[in-house]
Amino acid sequence: MSSIPAFFDERQLAHEPLQELHNGGWTPYAETPSRARMIASEFAGLRPARDFGLEPLLGVHDPGYVEFLRSAFIEWRASGRDGDAIGYTWPVVRRRKLDLDRIDAKLGQYSYDAATPIAEGTWEACYWSAQTALTALSAILDGNTRTSFALCRPPGHHAGRDYCGGYCYLNNAAIAAERARHSGRRVAILDIDYHHGNGTQDIFYEDPDVLFVSIHAEPATDYPFFWGHKEERGEGPGDGTTLNLPLPRGTEIHEYGAALDQALIAIAAHQADLLVVSFGADTFVDDPISNFRLRQEDYCVIASRIAALNLPILVVMEGGYAVDALGHNVEAFLSGFYEVPA
Ligand code: SP5
Ligand code: ZN
Questions:
Q1: What is the pLDDT averaged over residues 288-312?
Q2: 25: Cβ–Cβ under 8 A, 6 or more apart, which residues?
Q3: How confident is the model over 248-262, as a mean pLDDT?
Q4: Residues 170, 159: contact at Cβ < 8 Å?
Q5: Residue 329's pLDDT is what?
Q6: Which among 199, 208, 273, 306 could bridge 159 via Cys, Cβ 3.0 to 4.6 Å?
């Protein structure tokens, strides 16, 4: 059982899409409520989320997009459709900005893939997932703990200011990071999900204050393909405050650890005084949709190296789809933080 305060809200389970488009056909949705249940079962006393309202969400996300998330499923049903709301046309190729009303147009406007359907409980679940991140952050800001775990689900790191994608709707890590920055913290985000955190990168791409560092599968071969290449370093005033460390399929702890050392050097150089870790356990050797080869014991090693930064740390849950091993992998990761002096 973990001794780090952990936060979760039952309402996060309300999101249950049936299927996603993959390999040219419909397959069962990989980001299931059972993932969160499996992780939750590792904790004796999960603490519920407090409600910080919409304001911190709007600190990161576009108001039109948030309204879309709230209403899309209802509009989908009102337009006579069954199943989950999902787009099929995207305005990606030199389209001028339009303000269309049709639900199918809006689904294209506000998403970038077909893996992120909007189901009946999606808004409720992603709203509470974000509140869980904010509640876990507040435990740190209020001085009650140095390390805090937000059992976020749905995950967030693929969601941008005005789009969903990759099972993500609201960017929990970015919302918490923005809130921490508002409270005067100097923030760094370390994203160690298997997939590049394109949404988080995008949100802070021109921001010199928030450092975004990501270790992930080489996007030439892996989702989300169009972001996360090593040349992407931030833009304008944010030039140099994005660091991408892509690794090839098959990566094991030795090579992973070398990238982690680089990431930690960059975080220390940024002189951050609060670290948000976007943690995905989809780097696990048995993950059904990913291709790194990390083992359960590696997660403890990774966390203890991060803990050596000696910073307040908010851990935000992202991906991880080997459901049977997921609880133990998360527990192994969090155990790497136990030894840090308060
Ligand atoms: C948060 C996160 O880890 N998102 C990952 C999104 C990856 N989506 C693309 C890969 C789709 C693989 N889908 C397999 C479905 C099996 N039923
Ligand atoms: Zn992932």
A1: 98
A2: none
A3: 98
A4: yes
A5: 98
A6: 199
Amino acid letter, residue 23? N
Beta bridge partners of 247: 217
Whole-number Å distance between alpha carbons of 308 and 143:
19
Whose CA is closest to 30, among 129, 166, 121?
166
pTM of the predicted model as reported, rounded to 2 decimal places: 0.96
Instruction: Give the position of tokens 């991060």.
Output: 306
Give CA torsion, residues 127, 130, 132, 137, to 10 deg. -150
The ligand with the least distance to the CA atom of 155 is 1
Lowest mean pLDDT among 41-45, 143-147, 204-208: 41-45
* 215-229 residue pLDDT tens: 999 999 999 999 999
Residues designated as active site: 158
d(CA 290, CA 77): 34
Task: Name residue 28's beta-bridge partners.
Answer: 19
Rounded Cα gap, residues 268 and 160, in angstroms: 26
Given the CA of residue 156, which atom of ligand 1 is nearest to it? 1
Q: Which residues pair with 19 in a beta bridge?
A: 28
Residue 234 region by backbone torsions, left for phi larger than 0, else alpha for psi between -120 and 50, else beta = left
The answer to whether 167 and 115 have CB atoms below 8 angstroms apart is yes
At 244, is the secondary structure helix, strand, or coil?
Answer: strand
- Give residue for tokens 């108001």: 63
At 129, list the tokens: 């997932």
The CB-based long-range contact list for 22-25 (8 Å cut-off, 24+ gap) reads: 22/115
Whole-Å CA distances, 272 to 65, 119, 186, 268, 278: 30, 38, 5, 7, 16
Tokens linked to 26: 């419909």
User: Which atom from ligand 1 is nearest to the alpha carbon of 193?
Assistant: 3
Report the distance separating Cα 148 and Cα 140, nearest Å: 7
In the three-class reduction of DSSP (H, G, I as helix; E, B as strand; rest coil), residue 316 is classed as strand
Total count of residues recorded for the chain: 342
- The answer to whether residue 280 scores a pLDDT higher than 90 is yes
Pocket residues: Cβ below 6 A from ligand 1: 20, 22, 27-28, 30, 115, 155, 158, 166-168, 193, 195, 223, 280, 282, 289, 318-319
**CA 97, chain centre distance (Å):** 27
